[in-house]
Amino acid sequence: MSYTRVKICGITRIEDALHAAAEGVDAIGLVFYDKSPRYVTSAQAAEICKKLPAFVTTVALFKDADVDEVRQVLAEVQIDLLQFHGSESAEFCRQFGRPYIKALGMAGESIVPKQVAEYHDARGLLLDGHAPGADGGTGQSFEWGMIPTDLKYPLILAGGLNVDNVLGAVRAVQPYAVDVSSGVESEKGIKDAVLVTAFMNNVRQANNERS
């Protein structure tokens, strides 16, 4: 059976990235949105990426960035996957020739077929707990029952996930991946090693139950 993967987003320190990798994380997220408390510069991100071991995917998160900003990051940082968290059109997302995922804010919303069809070439859809157009990383969850059962895209579940609820989330939704940021932090942008370990252990437990 398939298993749920883990992305830890908002990494700002090399030591946090290395601990996440040691715990078996599948991907780390680097935030290139300068209004976020988890923002990193290209120089910071490049240093983090250089230290990562093989097979940990690096994800660059943008929110309504301009084309030149995205291209500059790609020129300076070893990025594997793009994540767009704003009102970007599919045309915008695909112009960089890199695989991408698109985030959708689910607060008070539901996915409609038109949204899904627009991003037909996305490698996955990330469903977050914030309102459409608002910033992510808020720790807000949403009603998982809103997720269509026939969604054909790899589903990445985000929004309010933490050590206490991720086991139930994976059991209930069985997503392709879960994405956590504030739920494993001691303060904004600083990951708590104990919480990261516990989060990964709970996802592993849920995966083992499905094997």
Point out poorly predicted stretches: none
The overall number of domains is 1
CATH class: Alpha Beta
Look at the helices and sheets and give the structural class.
alpha/beta
Radius of gyration from CA coordinates: 16 Å
What is the level-2 CATH architecture name?
Alpha-Beta Barrel
Shape type: globular
What's the β-strand tally? 10
Question: What is the CATH T-level topology?
Answer: TIM Barrel
Structural notes for this entry:
This protein has 211 residues and is an alpha/beta fold. The chain has a single domain (5-210), classed as Alpha-Beta Barrel (TIM Barrel), CATH 3.20.20. Helix content is 31%, strand content 20%. The protein contains seven helices and ten strands. The protein has helices spanning 14-22, 42-51, 67-76, 90-94, 113-118, 166-173, 193-210, and strands at 5-8, 27-31, 57-62, 81-84, 100-105, 124-128, 155-157, 177-180, 185-187, 190-191. It has an eight-stranded parallel β-barrel. It has a two-stranded antiparallel ribbon with strand order 9-10. Helix 6 (166-173) packs parallel to helix 7 (193-210). The longest helix is centred in the last third of the chain and has 18 residues, at 193-210. The mean pLDDT is 91.
